[in-house]
Amino acid sequence: MGLLSDTLEDNREFAGKIELAEFAFIELPPTPPSGVCCPVCDRIFGSDLALNNHIAQEHGREHVYIKANGRVVRGTEVFRQKVNQCELVLLGLGGVTVMIQAGKRRKQFLVEANTDLLEHIPTEYMGEVRVTVSHDRTKRDFLMYFNTEPPFDTRELNRLITAFQERLEQGIEPDGDAYQKRQRSLVQNDLEKHYLDGFFEYCLGFFLEKQGHWPESGMHLETAMHLLRPYATRPARTARRILAIRMNCFTPLQHCHRSSVFYPARVFFVDGDLILPLKTGDSATPPEGVRFANSPSDAIATRDERVYLDGFTELVLAAIKAFYARDFFILDGTLEMLERHPLATDTNNEGKLLLLKARGAHVRGDQRTARKNYERLLYHPIFGSEAQEFCNVR
């Protein structure tokens, strides 16, 4: 376990998004894939109906979110182009109170079904839009920026983040009171607050995991993913990709470039390739950019850009690296360590381990073992289609 940084990625990924060590901007998400994304777990569905059915079955009966320009807004979102769609979606709620603030204009109203929020926002509006949805004693806040680019300074923020990540490495519980005081002295707006809150939740989640408090840990890690999702800083991107592997919501991996530490994980979980794509002149081993940072000399990043990497995810990355190098001695040994890990029995992790074992057996020609593991994945929500294809063909 230690601190990890994604390597410096292809410059195209940073264009217009980030100025390292100076100012960071909210990330402009890539063109969304066809379909709609779950606001809770990031899975993609082919229709709004399929999404709503999934939310009702997997995440409880009552949910509220905003869908704008085809993207699901979880908390904070930036739209650099004109917003043509901004719908409040209610699932299982009979009625909510909505407060919209756009500049100096404030409006409150009651709704009982999905509602077009653009009807309550000035036409061609540019700036900050706050939406608060209240139901009984619960409240949900959304912050959107229409046709604007809100910068924020990350230098001091990243130093504070590094400080409480170092406490995490030492096994020291995050000090919530001290963090709140320091946060209030540093943050200038909600963007900076959400950025810090995301990393505090990240550290608290992994600390609780170290203590064996699995359910509480998972809730904090999920909150961290949602809070950090919009940010294009290297620490936020690295944290999202670690969480993507932990939580089986692989969307944050899909735009990793070849120089990224997470590129093999993208090829394995998103592309589903059995061979790591090579360019002309590449060797058959993983590219030099694929390495795992456990000490300062291992990472191409400043001290304040590195992110805590938990032991379980580190082993998963090592297993994937061994798989593509066809180093089955290392792969088998790493899988044995993963299977002995306390987190191995988690449903998400069971699926990942079965997939690693199935593909590992398949590429080495042991189709009987591959089928045995694939059969246990036949009804898996993510890996099931691959398992069904394998078992039907062979």
Give an overview in words.
By secondary structure, the protein is α+β, with helices and mostly antiparallel strands. It folds into 2 domains: about 1-25 and about 150-345, no CATH class; about 35-145, Immunoglobulins (Immunoglobulin-like), CATH 2.60.40.10. The protein contains 13 helices and 16 strands. α9 (about 310-325) packs antiparallel against α10 (about 330-340). The two termini are about 40 Å apart.
Order of helices and strands: EHEEEEHEEEEEEEEEEHHHHHHEHHHHH
Through-space gap between termini = 40 Å
Question: Approximately what portion of the residues adopt beta-strand conformation?
Answer: 15-25%
Which regions have little confidence, pLDDT < 50, spanning 5+ residues? 8-34, 280-300
> How many strands appear in the DSSP assignment?
16
Shape, please? Answer: globular
Q: State the strand order across the main sheet.
A: 8-14-13-10-11
Estimate percent helicity: 40-55%
How would you briefly describe this protein structure?
Helices cover 42% and strands 18% of the residues. It is of the alpha+beta class. Helix 11 packs antiparallel against helix 12 (367-375).
Defining traits:
alpha+beta, single chain, Immunoglobulin-like, five-stranded mixed sheet, 394 residues
Helix-strand layout with pairing:
Layout: E1 2-4, H1 11-14, E2 18-19, E3 23-24, E4 36-37, E5 44-45, H2 48-58, E6 63-68, E7 71-73, E8 76-79, E9 86-91, E10 96-102, E11 105-111, E12 115-116, E13 127-135, E14 138-146, E15 152-153, H3 155-169, H4 176-186, H5 190-210, H6 214-228, H7 234-247, H8 263-271, E16 307-309, H9 311-325, H10 328-340, H11 347-363, H12 367-375, H13 384-393
Parallel strand pairs: 8-14
Antiparallel strand pairs: 1-16, 2-3, 3-15, 4-5, 6-7, 6-9, 9-12, 10-11, 10-13, 13-14
